[in-house]
Amino acid sequence: MSRRLSLTQAFVFLLRRDLLLALRNRAEYAMPLLFFVLVITLFPLALGALPELLARIAPGIIWVAALLAAMLSLDSIFRSDFDDGSLEQILLSAHPVAVLVLAKVSAHWLVTGLPLLIVAPLLAEMLGMPAVAQPTLLLTILIGTPILSLIGAIGVALTVGLRKGGIILSLLVLPLYVPVLIFAASATENAAMGFEVSAQIYMLLAFLFLSISLSPWATAAALRMSVS
Question: Which of 42, 69, 136, 142 is 20 to 30 A from 180 via CA?
């Protein structure tokens, strides 16, 4: 990054750069979305014509698929930068590395998390989820998927220097994803039954604010350890 760029300009520059790279590699970045759709589509085929059962377990199905799709895309956050050497330039930048990391995580969410949010209502309708629960589902995806990207960035930073770090990455981030899965699926299920969901939403918001506050700094420190 140029020293003449302000911090805001550097953030926008890195965000736009990652979005352009994703646009040029559309097939690679479309895989998590296709995986998300395919996994959810297979459940009705496996369980058969049981609309009551599908409607009851739809929140869990959608969120497990979203979690797995997020894990599938995590390696793309820093891998290309590590391979072409631009990650070292980011670490040597005059700007706070944590802010630049946040730009890359934001780009990752726009490319992988936002499409899940867009297609989720169609898949929820296919599973027979009650209409009253679908706004809660969208809200949990809107809050929860950035958490997955922020937590996953730490794991990617720790394993980016490893040739076969996929299994290690899964072992690192999967336990941290479980609370998000529990509260998000629980909120959607409670909404479908007409119960209050504010407690689960507040917990997800707390996880989001905590992740935004801590994850970029932890990711920056992990990147320095991996590159050094």
Answer: 42
Flag whether 1 is in a domain.
no
Q: Are 72 and 148 in contact (CB under 8 A)?
A: no
Domain tally for the chain?
A: 1
- Report if residue 2 sits inside a domain: no
The C-alpha R_g of the chain, in whole angstroms, comes to 18
Domain span at 134: 7-227
pLDDT in tens, 130-179: 999 999 999 999 999 999 999 999 999 988 877 666 778 888 889 999 99
- DSSP assignment of 116-137: HHHHHHHHHHHTT--GGGHHHH
- Give per-residue pLDDT as tens, 41-72: 998 888 876 788 888 899 999 999 999 998 88
- Say how many residues make up the chain: 228
Q: Which residues contact 19 (CB under 8 A, 6 or more apart)?
A: 107, 110, 111
Q: Measuring CA to CA, which residue among 80, 67, 103, 65 is closest to residue 212?
A: 103
Query: How much of the chain exceeds pLDDT 90, in percent?
Result: 53
* Nearest Cα to Cα of residue 177 among 207, 134, 133: 207
Mean pLDDT rounded to a whole number for the chain: 88
Token digits of residue 73: 């895309």
- Angle, CA of 72, 76 and 78, to the nearest 5°: 135
Amino acid, res. 227? V
